[in-house]
Amino acid sequence: MLNRMLVAVVVIPAVIAAFQAAAGASYQPGEEGAICLGCHAEKGMTTTFTNGETLSLHVDDKELGGSVHKNLPCSVCHSGFSPDQHPKRHYKSKRNFTVAKAEACKQCHTFKKGIHVQMLGSLKEGVCVDCHGGHAVQSMKEAGDGCFGCHRYPVTMTFKDGSKHRLEVDENGLKTSVHKKLRCADCHFGFSAKEHPERVFKDRRNFRIVAAETCRRCHFDKYTKTLEGIHFNLLLSGNLKAPVCIDCHGSHTISSGRHEKVRSAHRCETCHEAIYQTYAMSVHGKALLSSHNQDVPVCSDCHRAHDLSDPHVADFRNNIPQMCSNCHANDDLMKRYGLSTAVLRSYLEDFHGVTITYYKKQKNSVRHIAVCTDCHGIHDITKTKGPDASVVKANLVKRCRKCHADAADNFPESWISHYEPDFKRAPLVYIVNLVYSVFIPFMIIGLVLQIILHIWRYAVNR
Amino acid sequence: MPGKEKYKQEYFTRFNRWRIIEHQANAIAFVVLVITGLSQKFHDSSVAEWVIMNIGGIDKARLIHRYTGLVLLVLTLQHIIIASFGVIFRRWAPTMVINRKDFTDVIDNLKYYFGMTEWPARCDRFDYKQKFEYWGVVIGGVLMVLTGLILWFPTLVFRWMPFLPGQIIPAAKATHTNEAMLAFLVIVIWHIYNSVFSPEVFPLDTSIFTGRISRERMIHEHPVEYERITGVALEKRHPAADDEAGADSKDVV
Q1: Chain A contact set for B198 (CB, 8 A)
Q2: Number of inter-chain CB pairs under 8 A, A vs B
Q3: Cβ–Cβ gap A443/B178 under 8 Å
Q4: What is the pLDDT of residue A5?
Q5: Residues with Cβ < 8 Å from B176, sequence gap 6 or more?
Q6: Alpha-carbon radius of gyration of chain A
Q7: Strands A156-158 vs A46-48: parallel, antiparallel or unpaired
Q8: Cβ atoms within 10 A of the Cβ of B38, count?
Q9: Could you read off the pLDDT of A22-33 as tens digits, one per residue?
Q10: Would you give the DSSP letter of residue A39?
Q11: β partners of residue B214
Q12: What is the pLDDT of residues B21-33, one digit of tens each?
């Protein structure tokens, strides 16, 4: 009894609901549609245009059923056609046919303002069905961004200065970018097929600067970093050449700056060409460009990407040893190139290093103190071993003289390099350290023993 | 010629006023040099950081260190000149010169400490411990001043002496820093023990302030000098016996 009631209460309505759902999903064409589809549902049906192109006349009832026009009779759009009348029409080409068919849309969809008015007036290439589709016509909300309907063509905008800017977007480029999952309106905020505000810019540069404003809506962390950066501050001070997000990252073909170092370096080259050329000849640049070595630093590794600061200020200079040691104190990394990681420690233990460490703590840089780059070069860093070694050495005294004006030619010899002094490299230093390392413990242990003996004797005598 | 009455005096003069001033000046310079110098040697430690930051930065610390070093230079130089002059021209007794007896005194004292002999070494005006310290200060002072000057004016070294190898600068630094450590440890451990904590002088050996030393200590520590000054020959005695009886009763004329 209970089982039967359960069937009546639960199972029967469920079955009915399922049945209704199934019935609702399948397309039931109207009276006229049923007649048209009688023939046009067939797959092999085609027509041939004057230029020889063929077009399938097959209408997919599922496609039609999913469209917003599913309840319209065919003749509303295909005017002149009815079950009784089926005139024969001739078109030059497939495109001509499409353009002619799109005229039908204007019967219902009249636009007095907005992007459609502009488009309908100025566009020759794009018509309604290009964006919205034919039988599968949908509102743009469901169809996704219809922007490519126009923006796949070289549509242009005109700036106040008279120059024109192509608004064509490479769809493939966009699809391979890191933003492939975003919709146009995510960046082009406020734009859609319905809303397409007309904006006027002074020139192309102003347009790009304003366009880059959108990035911060997602990348706010990076944006706040740029506020401290030199580029942003140059921009603020009126230098419009200073790069904004899209100048380095690109716009529609946007990619992460981290993964491809060569490309990253090339971006900087756009403005800093001379420095790039110097860098390209340096030990780091050569390794990057000749063998795509990803271990070496590019511009942004030292200067940072977003919060890059003025390299001429003391804070930047004083931090250079730490900057270089990001790699040069990394054992795993340096092992690959047979380089010593003692460079940082040996520098910090020496006069220059101690001074700079305290200048940082004191927060005042009294003088210019030699850091890595003062001896090794900045963008033109070369190997200190091998064929370049003699050049490095020859240049060294000039570099010393920048601060030690009266340095003699052999003054650089006093720098016994970044290695622990050993008998071969610096015998004098090695011997001094060795003698004291024996003498000091010997002396101190001896004296302490004397003291202990003295106290002991005193205690015994009492 | 030692007077007969000299053995009756309670105190014996040990240092004149100039020696006392010299010692105090050396001590002050030494302390300043140690504070500013060791802070540079151990620049990473928090104590060093506290010192340097309170001095007003690394440049000020170095400045103070260098000018105090100049004071040490003057003190060391004047001492060497005056002492040499005195010994050579005015026939001062070369009481600080290390001689054979100093080495035998060391052995004698060690034997005494280990209980192998009954009496400690009988020392003259300066015992071997004092000579060791004296020469440590003189030689150490010269070394520190020389290497300090090299580090202060590294470029001039090569201007004036281009024949010197480049590693003279790091070698000077190694010497300066190691010698400083040695000097600091010897002073802190040895000198402070002997002049403050040693049971014989505790709580403080005042002779460097007053310039004089008691007869008791004189007999005890510098018996040879005592005999020379007073002309009184001391009996070799067990030092423990000193505490019970007056010094004069044991004097043998």
Answers
A1: 454
A2: 114
A3: no
A4: 56
A5: B143, B144, B147, B148, B151
A6: 38
A7: unpaired
A8: 18
A9: 444 456 777 788
A10: H
A11: B11
A12: 999 999 999 999 9
Helix A427-461 and helix B168-185, axial crossing angle in degrees, nearest 10: 10
Is the complex ipTM more than 0.85?
yes
The count of domains in chain B is 2
- The Cα of B155 is separated from the nearest Cα of chain A by a number of Å equal to 5
Residue A73: is its pLDDT beyond 80? yes
pLDDT of the residue at A93: 85
A393 and B CB contact within 8 Å: no
Could you tell me how many helices (H) and strands (E) chain A has, helices first? 28, 4
Q: How confident is the model over A331-352, as a mean pLDDT? A: 91
Averaged confidence pLDDT in chain A? 83
Closest listed residue to residue A303, CA positions, set A287, A281, A319: A319
A413 touches chain B (CB under 8 A): yes
- Write the DSSP assignment of A392-407 as a string of letters: HHHHHHHHHHTT-TT-
CA separation (Å) from B140 to A226, B62, B181? 57, 20, 11
DSSP string, chain B: ---GGGGG-SEEE---HHHHHHHHHHHHHHHHHHHHHHHHHTTTSHHHHHHHHHHTSHHHHHHHHHHHHHHHHHHHHHHHHHHHHHHHHS----TTS--HHHHHHHHHHHHHHTTSSSS-----SS-HHHHHHHHHHHHHHHHHHHHHHHHHSHHHHHHH-TTS-TTHHHHHHHHHHHHHHHHHHIIIIIIHIIIIISTTTTT--THHHHSEEEHHHHHHH-HHHHHHHH-PBPPP--GGGGGTS-HHHH-B-
CB A369 within 8 A of CB A447: no
Phi first, then psi: give them for residue A311, nearest 5 degrees.
-70, -5
> By the 8 A CB rule, do A41 and A82 touch?
no
pLDDT higher for A377 or A138? A377
- Substitution target from B49, B107, B113 for chain A, most A beta carbons within 10 A: B113
What whole-number distance in Å separates Cα of residue A365 and Cα of residue A356? 8
Give the whole-angstrom CA distance, residue A59 versus residue A252.
35
Higher pLDDT, A388 or B65: B65
Chain A residues closer than 8 Å to B58 by CB: 354-355, 358-359, 362
What was the pLDDT predicted at A133?
A: 75
Cis, bond preceding B203 (omega within 30 deg of 0): yes
Q: Which domain holds residue B70?
A: 17-92
Distance from A381 to chain B by nearest Cα, in Å? 24
Residue type present at position B72: L
Is the confidence at residue B252, as pLDDT, over 50? no
Residue B168 forms contact with A (CB below 8 Å): yes
CA distance A32 to B129: 126
**Is a pLDDT exceeding 50 seen at residue A216?**
yes
Residue A428 structure tokens? 């004098």
Residue B129 lies in a domain: no
> Which site among A365, A397, A450 would you substitute to test the B interface, given the most B Cβ atoms closer than 10 Å to its Cβ?
A450
Nearest of A107, A16, A30, A35 to residue A65 by alpha carbon: A30
Q: Give A258's pLDDT tier (boundaries 50, 70, 90).
A: low
Asked if the Cβ–Cβ distance from B154 to A406 is below 8 Å, we say: no
d(CA A177, CA B166): 57
Residue reference for tokens 């082009």:
A188
The answer to whether residue B151 is domain-embedded is yes
Contact A374, A381 (CB under 8 A): no
Q: Which residues contact A251 (CB under 8 A, 6 or more apart)?
A: A211
Inter-chain residue contact B166 with A412, CB threshold 8 Å: yes
Both tokens assigned to B194: 């002997």
Q: Does B118 touch chain A (CB under 8 A)?
A: no
At residue B101, φ and ψ (nearest 5 deg) are: -60, -30
The pLDDT score that the predictor gives to residue B248 is 43
pLDDT of residue A262: 87
Report yes or no on B136 lying in a domain: no
Q: Which of B53, B154, B174 sits opposite A433 (nearest CB)?
A: B174
Q: Is A441 exposed, middle or buried (CB count within 10 Å of its CB: 0-12, 13-18, 19+)? A: exposed
